[in-house]
Design a protein that fits this description.
alpha/beta, 5-stranded mixed sheet, binds iron/sulfur cluster, globular, binds 1,3-dihydroxyacetonephosphate, Rossmann fold, 4-stranded parallel sheet
């Protein structure tokens, strides 16, 4: 089948079977074209709680599918490619959080959404890159234990000088592969371009950015800016999507290293197989995990909306 034929069949079958396809911004453009909603982690979480369909396919990574199931346990939720996991979400488990709580008994525990639902049962609130600053600023607690992304955490801490932050090793291997040398090289090659980066990057990268924010934030900034050239310091696919959206502007990847292989695992054929009734993985979570994780995601949506 051609790409176009696959897309037509996916669109026909998802309507016939009452299926909603949610795609993260890092998915490829052929997937964007068949999705009901495309967005960043925060947008996906909100959409998951309001989508009317009975069946949901997550084209992204495992923690995103778990978030959908947590918010809509009555729905049938599928991860399009069962191999697609976020390495950062595997870096910390619930037991480690409980140990850290003993070390910092007065701290509010804030988890990045890139964590398992099981871990979320042991934290006070979760955040995404687009909602973290707003949520943490609005919290009454002055002491914050931020897990697991030390780079996102450090970026937030620098903007909340009135709070004390504690971190515990963790971060995104894709964004952490970028360094000041990559910035220098990209700026030398494109001296007129603005640098837009994701706050999962190291501080030596975000410190040099003209804008730092979530995937959706980066795209919005680039579209609304009067500038004509941009170096994109996040996953490669955002370069491609922006080039489609703004053909009159130029977008350059900061480095060929900035590829998330997990996000790239899901293909249009995976989506076709699921809507055709084969492949994918149905997500199941225990009632206890759903109850505990839902409280922390609900709090994020209430504070971050
Ligand atoms: P956002 O979609 O919140 O920008 O996060 C990027 C990411 O790495 C998701 O795994
Ligand atoms: Fe996880 Fe980083 Fe990939 Fe996002 S880009 S899914 S944080 S490894």
């Amino acid at each position: 089948m051609t790409t176009r034929e696959l897309q037509d069949e996916i669109i026909r079958l998802k309507k016939e079977k009452d299926i909603c396809i949610l795609a993260h911004a890092y998915q490829s453009h052929d997937i964007w074209e068949v999705a009901d909603y495309v967005g960043d982690s925060y947008g996906l979480a909100v959409e998951a709680s309001t989508a009317p369909q009975k069946n949901v396919i997550m084209s992204g990574v495992r923690f995103m599918a778990e978030t959908v199931k947590t918010l809509s346990p009555e729905k049938n939720v599928y991860l399009a490619n069962p191999m697609a996991g976020c390495p950062m979400a595997q870096q910390m488990d619930r037991e480690t959080v409980l140990e850290l709580r003993k070390q910092y008994p007065n701290a509010a525990v804030v988890a990045y959404i890139n964590t398992t639902s099981e871990l979320k049962t042991a934290v006070d609130v979760c955040v995404t890159s687009s909602s973290a600053l707003r949520i943490i600023r609005s919290m009454p607690e002055k002491e914050i234990l931020f897990i697991p992304d030390c780079n996102l955490g450090g970026w937030i801490a620098a903007q909340c000088p009135d709070k004390t932050f504690h971190f515990f090793k963790g971060g995104c291997p894709t964004h952490m592969s970028l360094n000041a040398g990559d910035v220098a090289k990209a700026k030398a090659a494109h001296p007129n371009a603005l640098l837009l980066v994701h706050p999962e990057c190291l501080a030596e990268v975000t410190a040099q950015a003209d804008y730092a924010g979530s995937t959706t934030g980066i795209m919005k900034f680039a579209k609304e800016s009067d500038a004509k050239e941009f170096i994109i310091g996040t996953e490669q696919s955002i370069v491609q999507h922006l080039q489609f959206d703004c053909p009159e502007k130029q977008f350059y990847s900061i480095s060929p290293k900035c590829v998330c292989h997990n996000m790239k695992m899901t293909t249009l054929v995976d989506l076709y197989n699921i809507v055709a009734g084969k492949g994918g993985e149905e997500i199941t979570l225990s009632d206890d995990v759903i109850r505990g994780a839902k409280a922390c995601i609900d709090r994020m949506i209430a504070l971050g909306g």
